[in-house]
Specification:
- This protein is α+β, with helices and mostly antiparallel strands.
- It contains ten helices and eight strands.
- It has a single domain (about 1-15, about 65-215), classed as Transferase(Phosphotransferase) domain 1 (Transferase(Phosphotransferase), domain 1).
- Helix 3 packs antiparallel against helix 8 (about 185-195) and helix 4 packs parallel to helix 6.
- The radius of gyration is 19 Å and the shape is globular.
- The relative contact order is 0.14.
């Protein structure tokens, strides 16, 4: 879907779980035993009969030529770093959002549970490592105040509160997050997420390239 959309020169700009729907509501029901302390109980699970999905909500979609690269796009939790840093955006902002969604769907928790730009960037560094210096040197607008001398993130010095600092400190690195919440995840899945969540949009795979990743090929 995303590859087709990008091939048509359109960018969705608001990819999030709410905008990805199953094409059918039909489900299979399974009853499985679940441990609760020292006792077991039976739990009914509903599994979709069809795994096909579709995208919805194209109200924010824009063509490549008509996009305003200076505008803010994407719902906060799925917003790419280049958008926050004022570096302009294009197709790769959708790829970043897909990475955030895949991480959330596999763990059941938001990858970036925040509502502030600086805190968001601090969480990125906690989860993915330091923001590359060549991106920091090119930040524009309000994002300039998030860095000290255009060298490093102004964190925790610039935090809005001690509560914000604690929220970032609780965040796990990407591999630790998957180990904690996603049972038996494949190493290829971790590699896929790392590719989709590259800081530099030029380093992220296209949607078409991502489909060729070993995780999707089952290797």
């Amino acid at each position: 879907m995303m590859a087709d959309m990008h091939n048509l020169k359109y960018i969705h700009t608001d990819l999030k779980p709410e905008n990805v729907l199953l094409t059918s509501s039909e489900c299979r029901k399974f009853v499985v035993p679940v441990l609760e302390g020292s006792s077991k109980r039976l739990k009914e699970l509903r599994v979709p009969r069809c795994s096909r999905v579709k995208l919805i909500d194209f109200g924010s979609a824009t063509s490549y030529k008509q996009r305003s690269a200076s505008s803010i796009v994407s719902t906060r939790h799925y917003r790419a770093p280049e958008v926050i840093l004022g570096l302009g955006w294009s197709y790769p902002c959708d790829i970043w959002s897909i990475g955030c969604m895949l991480a959330e769907l596999s763990t059941g928790v938001l990858l970036f549970d925040t509502h502030e730009d600086l805190e968001h960037l601090a969480m990125m560094e906690r989860i993915l490592g330091r923001i590359p210096s060549h991106l920091i040197k090119n930040v524009t607008g309000k994002a300039e105040e998030y860095f000290r001398h255009r060298r490093r993130l102004n964190w925790p010095e610039g935090a809005s509160s001690s509560r914000s600092v604690r929220a970032v400190q609780r965040v796990l690195q990407l591999d630790e997050l998957l180990e904690k919440y996603a049972d038996d995840y494949e190493n290829s899945f971790l590699d896929l997420l790392r590719q989709l969540l590259k800081y530099d949009p030029n380093d992220r795979p296209t949607a078409e390239e991502a489909l060729g990743h070993p995780f999707f090929r089952g290797h």
